[in-house]
Amino acid sequence: MKKMRIAVMGLGAYGRGWAYVAAKSPDAELTAVIDRSEDALNAVDLPVGKYTDLDAAIENEKPEAVVLVVPPRLHIPIAEKLVKMGIAVLCEKPICEELSEAEDFIALCEKDDRVCSIAENFRYRPVFRAAKQMLLDGAVGKLLRVNCRYVSYHPDASNAYHGALKHPLLCDVTVHHLDVARYLTGAEPKDVFCTEHSASHTWYGERPASAEIASEMTNGIYFTYSGTTASPVSVTDGFGEWEIIGEKAVMRICGPEITLYTAQNEKTVRLFPDRGDTREPLLEGFVRAALNNTVGESDIRDNFKSFRWTQKAMESSEKKKIIEL
């Protein structure tokens, strides 16, 4: 398969990681890294073009795609510029800060038949891929209820992004868990009720770093979520702990482990260890979709459904009412 020429824009800690993922990918050719900081550019030890200006990078290196790892407020302005030039975009989450802004951008992509995907997606983790297949094979029977629990200590890692979020838990973390719920069930939320709680005992101050969510989903599935980043210690990993209740069995997902409980009081445990960085299969799928001009698994139109669920949860919390989706 032809390799795709890729540039990475935004070289914070996660952006630098993206540069190294792209550099070793069998599907991509990393041609440039872009950041306004010379220090950030020099911190990337790779033999590629280094630019403080996006236009110069595009003119000199002619990338076919750009991985955007810049602050969310810059996602849409830069992505619009790129797709209008015919350059595919792999953008870090969240898509942006407002639903209407995302809807307008998606309309632009569809009008001009452009490729844009959203990155950092938990669904590529081996344990979730295995759980999805087991559910499709009928491991628990008809799905009835899905519960997710997330308890974490989250230090002030970035005042530039996380430290400035109005809804830090929902915007930065919960969006992933809601996406996993959609992925595992194949269902969509019909409504959402969310309550949030401030964390004045931590660096979050009065901003809500804890939340509970309840949603009725299609296919008769009920979803609940309890999460916090204001714990004194991390109890679950970042992917959360999952309980999937069906008509004939219960599946629990904890770390790389799937445990299946049946009505006969039987228990089956299977391990699906993580293999490398989940950005690797995500990038592979993005490149294939972009080169073939097809809709990839992480296409913005699918991720928007998880983004919208999260945004409506924020609205529910603020209005203290159930929001229909």
Give a brief rundown of this model:
The protein has helices at residues 13-23, 38-42, 54-61, 72-84, 99-112, 126-136, 168-185, 279-292, 300-319; strands spanning 4-9, 28-34, 49-51, 65-68, 88-91, 116-118, 143-151, 191-199, 205-216, 222-228, 241-246, 249-254, 257-262, 267-271, 323-324.
Explain the layout of strands and helices.
Blueprint: E1 4-9, H1 13-23, E2 28-34, H2 38-42, E3 49-51, H3 54-61, E4 65-68, H4 72-84, E5 88-91, H5 99-112, E6 116-118, H6 126-136, E7 143-151, H7 168-185, E8 191-199, E9 205-216, E10 222-228, E11 241-246, E12 249-254, E13 257-262, E14 267-271, H8 279-292, H9 300-319, E15 323-324
Parallel strand pairs: 1-2, 1-4, 2-3, 4-5, 5-6, 7-10
Antiparallel strand pairs: 7-11, 8-9, 8-15, 9-10, 11-12, 12-13, 13-14
Please describe the biggest sheet, giving its number of strands, its sense, and whether it closes into a barrel: 9 strands, mixed
CATH-assigned fold name of the largest domain: Dihydrodipicolinate Reductase, domain 2
Number of helices: 9
| Overall 3D shape | globular
CATH superfamily of the largest domain: Dihydrodipicolinate Reductase, domain 2
Query: β content, as a range?
Result: 25-35%
Number of strands: 15
Description of the structure:
The chain is α/β, with parallel strands linked by helices and 325 residues long. It folds into 2 domains: 4-120 and 278-298, NAD(P)-binding Rossmann-like Domain (Rossmann fold); 122-277 and 308-324, Dihydrodipicolinate Reductase, domain 2, CATH 3.30.360.10. It is 35% helix and 27% strand. It contains 9 helices and 15 strands. It has helices at residues 13-23, 38-42, 54-61, 72-84, 99-112, 126-136, 168-185, 279-292, 300-319; strands at residues 4-9, 28-34, 49-51, 65-68, 88-91, 116-118, 143-151, 191-199, 205-216, 222-228, 241-246, 249-254, 257-262, 267-271, 323-324. The protein is globular and about 65 Å long. It starts with a strand and ends with a strand.
